[in-house]
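Re: the pair you flagged

First of the two:
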Amino acid sequence: MNGAGTTVGYAAVQMALRKGSRVIASAGKTYADALRALGAQVTDYGEGMADRVLELAGGRVDLALDTAPVSDCLPEIIPTVGKPADVLTLGNSAAGHELGVRTQFSENAVHDPSPVLGEYARLAAEGRFTVPVARAVPLADWRAAAELSLSGRPGGKLVLRLK
């Protein structure tokens, strides 16, 4: 999984592990230890990632999920799987279409998340499913929170506190 340090990636790692999958994740230092504590094997993203993933996996992986913000990483991910259609990107639809990678808007992509939302809401309420929260911000400071979010480096989800 590429982009496991993103909020969506972090959630996807937990979901895959919960289903019994072996997860090899690329992430930066901010969430690498937390992802390892969940049970994922973690490597750095960036140049050479494909080789590191193949080494950790002992060969090609079955599927790859790209949750990273739009970047040029798809050519690095494709060699880790059997064929481009074994990759799903959530962030780079244009490159995905060009490379034969599935995208969140593909015909065979899952479009209705409602069957799992209740289950994961329950797990979150029980403390058994989390997302990285960078900070809680008073609603009055929403502009600062928006600026931090738009910076591309909020360090996790920003939560607006109503009180």
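Second of the two:
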Amino acid sequence: MKILLTGANGYVGRRLLPELLNQGHEVVCAVRDKTRFGLDTETLSLISIWEVDFLDEFNPIDCPIDIDIAYYLIHSMSSSVDFFDKMEAKSAHNFNLYSSCMNVKQVIYLSGIVNDPKLSKHMMSRNSVEKILMEGKPSVTVLKAGIIVGSGSSSFEIIRDLCEKLPIMITPKWVLTKTQPIAIRDVITYLIGVQNRIDCFNQSFDIGGPNIITYKQMMQLYAKTRGIKLAIFTIPVMTPKLSSYWLYFVTSTSYKLAINLVDSMKVEVVCKDKRLQEMLDVKPISYVDAIKLAFQKIEQNLVISSWKDSLTSSRFKKDLSQYVQVPNFGCLKDSKSIKILNSEQVLDNIWTIGGDKGWYYGNWMWQLRGFIDKLFGGVGLRRGRTSPTHLDNGDALDFWRVLLADKEGKRLLLFAEMRVPGEAWLEFRIDENNVLHQIATFRPIGIFGRLYWYSMIPFHFFIFNGMINKIATQN
């Protein structure tokens, strides 16, 4: 079958794609920016890419045709606090227009469980998108999931951050809300299982794991599974706004996502039926087993995707390609070069920078800069990196975004997503003479941008000198 995969760069989309290819389907991946679609050459040769933003005005030029099944995996919860529901509605309306042109027969939409009468804004938006998609020409199958647990999922990473960084927690009362987590493997099983099934057309199904537990129990089970001592004390006086700040500063989540998550976590998320589980004969994975499977992937360095690599965790929502050409005019630079002996070792050092390994020199200063960035609403350093050894275009790397990861061409280009009065790039390049070049470029905005750069010169002197020397010599 010919399948359209929207949200192909997202957490679920990246997990679903190899399964679709293994089934022998012809897959068209819909992405907003094809330059950051970080896939290996072999996978790229097996797919077609359609560059489209469903928030833009409808434009059928280059629209694929004769699509059998379309997966709708587009969400905007991390993009906005106030307007994400309008963005999601607009995307759904535009998708309906495109689906008519593509002759889509079935749309499979991954939504969220909406059984509580007091829905959060997030879940009201998901419900609204379902109604909009049902108005389109194709038959629609809706899968409503609770919290998705897997290596790289936002929920898993937040629980991981909380449990492994805070042995004692004073938590808001929403941690006593019941939820029904589901393993990412089971989500993929359901997404594949409903393909082209007439008994699933124009139907909505709840999907969940076998355990109905509270958020507090989720953290306690995580701690027990990981052998961590954890004490949780619940108080009724923590407001939603304080709860959002708590999540934002302790975990790697963005402030926008934290607000929307807290709003949703006050609502019970439990399946009302097991129809689809029985129809597809699925034996769901337990929450504890899902945690163990996630860590198997992490320990084996096999994490396929992470929510942090999505542009929704970025300051810049689209078209990163405009930043690939580092400007010269009106810019301030810190350029350093050093002769190296072993280019392969140095290249490995460059490709493993950041995350748990750190930035080779003055890590406490990097951490301080990340903390200051968090104070001003930035992404901070907590995002880390998806893989400790591999980088793709578009990956999040602490408070940078990978613009170009060309290991064969011996060049890594990063773009700053921390809060700065301007735009900043950091480039590592090894030339044909075995010289390592490290170039920090800053394009200031106004007088404050220049004042910022000059105030940072003493720190740059120590950090950038130390960093290039360590990269060049560390084995």
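Confidence is low (pLDDT under 50) at residues 77-81.

-B.
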